[in-house]
Amino acid sequence: MAAPRDQAARVIRSEPDKAEGEAAHDAANLSEQLRTHVAEETRRAPSHAPGQAPAQTPAGAPAADAAAPKSGARKKFVMIGVVGLLALAAASYGVYYVFAGRFYVSTDDAYVRANNTMLGARVAGHVTAILPGDNTVVRKGDTVFRIDDGDYRIAVDAARTKIATQQATIDRIGRQVTALESAVAQAKAQLASTEAALKRAGLDFERQQALSTKGFASRATFEVSEAGRDQGLAAVKSAQAAYDASRDNVEVTRAQQAEARAQLAELQTSLAKAERDLDFTYVRAPVDGTFSNRLVNTGDFVQAGQRLGNLVPLNDVFIDANYKETQLKRIRPGQPVTIKVDAYGFRKFKGVVDSISPAAGSVFTLLPPDNATGNFTKIVQRLPVRIRVPKDVAAQNLLRAGMSVYTTVDTREGAADADSEADLDASPMVHPK
Fold this sequence. Notes:
The two termini are 58 Å apart. By secondary structure, the protein is an alpha+beta fold. A hairpin with a 6-residue loop joins β11 and β12 (348-356). The protein has 6 helices and 14 strands. α2 (22-44) packs antiparallel against α3. The chain folds into 4 domains: 2-45 and 64-99, no CATH class; 106-115 and 313-419, Efflux pump adaptor protein, beta barrel domain (Elongation Factor Tu (Ef-tu), domain 3, Beta Barrel), CATH 2.40.30.170; 117-148 and 281-311, CATH 2.40.50.100; 150-279, Helix Hairpins (Orthogonal Bundle). The chain is elongated. The strands form 3 sheets. A 6-stranded antiparallel β-barrel has the order 1-10-13-12-11-14. It has a 4-stranded antiparallel beta sheet with strand order 2-9-7-4, with no helix packed on it. Strands 6-5-3-8 form a 4-stranded antiparallel beta sheet, with no helix packed on it.
């Protein structure tokens, strides 16, 4: 009697697989009730001490002899009931597995993840203030750290002073250009005057030349008119050169002004950098999240690029479930997922398969394994499956990065091609949605 009862207890105590779903849970409850019933019947039956013979029944006690067959019949009935219920549970589970259970793919190698933001210093200096407390929520744009900004304010003021000086230089050169343009106008007028004098001297020379040829003018008068003409030509050339020089001076001065403007733009860039460095003394939150993992304290000196703390966006968490490669046959993006969080017991919520990693985790390690060297032992690999968490669930901020979860993917939809016997290189290719 003890051997069948122990065997039944071992069968009943076998923990239902988590992938069986609600039907397996009901079978476990039924088995627990049966085990309680068997224990109650065993307690009611007469017990014997180990190694001790059963008590002798007096010859004149027919009631005890009549009770023995009834007790045996009762135990037989109980065992038949237990076996029947177990058979019924096995049959119900078989029906459930055929129609639903075999389509659920589960794993407990799953964790809550978040795109953690590492806050870093963009400039060097002493930390003067840490505004939020540890593990507090901050909003995008809120100041988290303040760095001493004295030197950076001085740099901004110096850059602004240089810009003002350079602007004054540009204004001065502009006035020089105006003055030189007036000189150009004067040289142009002088050139016109000399050209008029040359014209008059030329006419006088022609007249004296005609009179000298006819003998009506002296040679001296002719030579004076000729010299006047030559002087007029020289004066015109001189005035032309002065005019050209004045005009070139204007162009040179304008080029100097353009150079000064370029230097002004360079100084404005320096000012922008100085203002940017000054703004970097305020380390602000780039996204909404929870501030944690503070690595510095007030008064510490930090270098540019040094890590200061973490910002975890709990409103945008997701789940990475590491399924075995043998479980990925029917998993497709878009399939519904049931998620159980270890921290919250039996609470469940729905998710959606977002994507499947293009490679196993071993491929992305610092030193990936090389199975071509040494002895080879085949190990089933796992690939991360990204699962989206509903926004309303994530907004409750109950899911924390690193929490363990249990995920079950319902593969009944979107995996019709998983049962295909076609070759992978057959045409056309079979692609998931």
